Amino acid sequence: MRVVAVVDGTVGTAGRQARALGGFLRDGLVAGVREGVPGGVTEETLVFYHDEEDRDGLVGLSPTCDVRLVRTARRRVDRMVEVLTSAPRGEQPSLFLFAPGPTGTELAARLACRTGGAVLTEALSAEIGPAGLACRKNVYSAHMTGGFELATRPWCVTVDAGWYDAPDPAGVAHRVLSDSDEMGETGASPFADVELLETPSSEELAEARFLVVAGYGAGDRERVERIAAAARRMGADFGVSRPVATNAWAPMDRLIGVSGTRTAPALCLVVGASGAPAFHWGIEKAGFIVAINPDERAAIVGNADAAVLDDGVAVIEELAAIIAAERKRPSAGA
Q: Is the peptide bond before 154 cis (omega within 30 degrees of 0)?
């Protein structure tokens, strides 16, 4: 039986992910289960990475002896799922373990859906038994602990955030089983399968096709101006929420919402806005809304089609650099 711990090394939290997964493998898989499984249990770590200079360090962080490496684009959960499902059906691992948090949850859910497996999040422990995988997790706001049994393989499990506090494992002698480059010859542009929108031809926000909106959560005038500059580099129109305009961090003619402009872009990126109803009215007709906000409880995250839980300025500036470079490619849209 194969158990695979998955580490997203394309982001800066790889060390914490590896610690949580290593702690769970060491103490969360109930004592004795390895010996009780016919044929035994093999454990390996699958590490996604982007930069070559990070490769050796990520191998050193891996919680298991055996390591597989896959070079891929940053923040592309869809590409990672493709890799995880690439093995023939009969060779798929029985158990995939993911780190706590939104990325781990999305990977587990997508993988279970794609493979017909079972998913469970925030596991405190797991035991491999004859009928399936028996897990325990906190329920009712951690007032109780519940037991759950996953029958259909592969079992796709995220570990509880408490495993972040697990002690660092003792030194592990690593062995790299494989190192593949999912990015391929083209460098795996994140926009290889995306048609870029044309640069807006109108100064009117109501007619914008591609819109970036900065909210009060951006932090201050300087950070709002950085978001506006990133929008220009992407060829997007720029708008703001009411608190940004009333604090004079941006002109009032950029205001989106009940007291400003109602828009209907094909794509709307919302950076740092809480998503109050008066603001959401101004963007609700957008074809696709992406919330970029570190607070997963913000209303905009629940109302968006997709969310990136990270610092908005850092994400939007990196995205602007990628899109600006993609627009210069001969195959890119106008």
A: yes
